[in-house]
Write a structure and sequence with these properties.
By secondary structure, this protein is an alpha+beta fold. Helices cover about 40% and strands about 20% of the residues. α2 packs parallel to α4 and α3 runs antiparallel to α4.
Length: about 260
């Protein structure tokens, strides 16, 4: 918008001077704050005025109350509350979406500037954990504990399967060498494998424990199938009958007696 005004010069004449006023530099008539998008995608309050007129940037020491805990952080006076939350993540371990920051009784948005909201050095902010995040964190802890328990149970089954697999290999080696194995031994081993399969079925596995459970289940299935095949091969092996012939000997004849007896009247 162009404006023109007249001014008397040194010789009494009138000179026209034009001035330009940018409507974009004005604030809204209703006093509402304007917003702008930062390159990182954060929506922040739009600053007005020239950069030359802005006060020098300095760091603020902020006092943070988080329940019974107290923290003190240092941030730029021109930082946003979203940047404050990033600092608090390092201190508390809470992620930005789990935090609620309250200043002067009002929860502040991520894009609001500290200096525009009146935050000064040594100002106190209240940090509150989002109740929904507490529930999510609790559920996540339960899920991790459940996975840990499943890992431990699957590990115990795996150790037992290692022992049973060694017995299967030993039976397989004996049958391949033509040595007949008692059928009861094979049947008992199959029953022991099936017990481990029942244990696996009773384990509730989630996350990365589920593939481990499937892997051990395949091991049981493979051992049982191997024993079924060995059972058939073992039945075809004829038992070796060992017969022992004993040689008999006649007892030796006693030597003739050469004893002379003397008679007395």
């Amino acid at each position: 918008m162009m404006r023109t005004k007249k001014k008397l010069n040194a010789y009494g004449g009138a000179a026209e001077i034009s001035t330009a006023t940018s409507t974009t530099a004005r604030e809204n008539d209703d006093g509402a704050a304007e917003w702008e998008m930062r390159p990182g995608g954060m929506l922040v309050q739009k600053r007005s005025g020239k950069a030359d007129d802005a006060p020098p940037v300095r760091n603020l020491r902020l006092r943070i109350a988080y329940g019974a805990l107290r923290y003190e952080i240092s941030v730029s006076s021109m930082a946003t509350f979203g940047e404050v939350k990033k600092k608090l993540t390092e201190e508390t371990g809470l992620q930005g979406n789990e935090q609620r920051v309250v200043y002067r009784g009002k929860e502040r948005e991520n894009g609001e500037y500290l200096d525009i909201c009146g935050v000064k050095d040594r100002s106190k902010l209240i940090l509150i954990q989002d109740p929904s995040s507490i529930e999510r964190r609790f559920l996540e802890m339960r899920r991790k504990a459940k996975i840990h328990t499943a890992h431990r149970a699957i590990s115990h089954v795996s150790i037992e399967l290692d022992k049973l697999a060694d017995q299967v290999s030993s039976i397989e080696k004996s049958i391949s060498n033509g040595v007949k194995v008692p059928e009861l031994q094979i049947t008992t081993l199959i029953e022991m494998l099936m017990r481990q399969a029942i244990k696996l079925d009773s384990i509730s596995a989630e996350g990365d424990a589920s593939p481990q459970k499937i892997l051990q289940g395949k091991r049981v299935q493979k051992c049982v199938e191997t024993l079924d095949v060995l059972k058939i091969s073992n039945a075809r092996i004829k038992p070796v009958i060992v017969t022992t012939k004993w040689e008999t000997f006649d007892p030796p004849h006693p030597p003739p007696s050469t004893t002379k007896w003397e008679l007395f009247d």
